[in-house]
């Protein structure tokens, strides 16, 4: 959806739409847990399909999403036009609609007039050659998923101040780990950096 279909248009924030689709799948799975495996698979497939289209609404990805759903239907084995199939589809669609309704007005679409702070140590600035603004700055105000309320309890402690004694230790660590031919960095850490580099946005 993101690269090959949209063709240059920005996609929704990955954490947001993944949560929307996962939530719809979960709701459909719970709503059909007492049914056959084929019933459950058909329900969650339609829930995922509708949730994806809700998340990417307006980007005209209907044909691609429809094709993906159409491709898995034969393997599920429950005829969509059967009585059980129609019921499974309704439950999947209902699950996706429930999640869409729950996320309506969650703040993701609200405008936030972001401005950079003063160019002082510890104040976020534009990454050289990066985007002119942070990606989705309004996300900090989005209503959390899963009933979480106070997200500040999960916030990491601030970095040391430039005047603190341990500041130099942190700078040395970053330089040693981040050097192109670092002997301190493990192969696992290198692979991890390459993994996140593929989709990272400032």
Cα distance spanning the termini: 21 Å
Pattern of helices and strands: HHHHHH
What characterizes the major β-sheet? none
Shape: elongated
Total count of domains? 2
Hey, roughly how much beta strand do the residues contain?
under 5%
Note the total helix count: 6
Which structural class matches the secondary elements? mainly alpha
Q: What is the arithmetic mean of pLDDT?
A: 87
Rg: 22 Å
DSSP summary, beta strand count: 0
Uncertain parts? none
Helical residue percent band: 40-55%
Structural notes for this entry:
- By secondary structure, this protein is an all-alpha fold.
- The protein has 2 domains: 130 residues, no CATH class; 45 residues, no CATH class.
- 48% of the residues lie in helices and 0% in strands.
- The protein is built from 6 helices and no strands.
- α1 packs antiparallel against α2, α1 crosses α4 and α2 packs parallel to α4.
Key phrases:
single chain; 202 residues; mainly alpha; 48% helix; elongated
Summarize the structure.
The protein has helices at 14-31, 37-55, 62-76, 83-103, 167-178, 187-197.
Write the layout of secondary structure elements.
Blueprint: H1 14-31, H2 37-55, H3 62-76, H4 83-103, H5 167-178, H6 187-197
């Amino acid at each position: 959806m993101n690269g090959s279909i949209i063709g240059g248009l920005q996609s929704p924030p990955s954490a947001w739409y993944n949560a929307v689709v996962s939530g719809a799948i979960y709701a459909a799975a719970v709503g059909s847990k007492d049914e056959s495996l084929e019933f459950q698979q058909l329900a969650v497939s339609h829930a995922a399909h509708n949730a994806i289209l809700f998340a990417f609404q307006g980007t005209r990805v209907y044909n691609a999403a429809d094709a993906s759903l159409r491709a898995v239907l034969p393997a599920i084995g429950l005829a969509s036009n059967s009585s059980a199939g129609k019921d499974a589809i309704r439950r999947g669609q209902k699950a996706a609609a429930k999640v869409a309704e729950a996320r309506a007005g969650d703040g993701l679409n609200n405008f936030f007039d972001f401005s950079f702070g003063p160019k002082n140590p510890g104040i976020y600035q534009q990454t050289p050659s990066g985007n002119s603004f942070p990606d989705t700055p309004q996300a900090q105000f989005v209503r959390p998923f899963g009933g979480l309320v106070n997200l500040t309890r999960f916030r990491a402690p601030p970095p040391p101040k430039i005047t603190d004694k341990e500041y130099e230790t942190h700078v040395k660590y970053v330089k040693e780990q981040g050097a192109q031919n670092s002997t301190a960095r493990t192969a696992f850490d290198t692979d991890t950096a390459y993994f996140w580099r593929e989709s990272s946005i400032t």
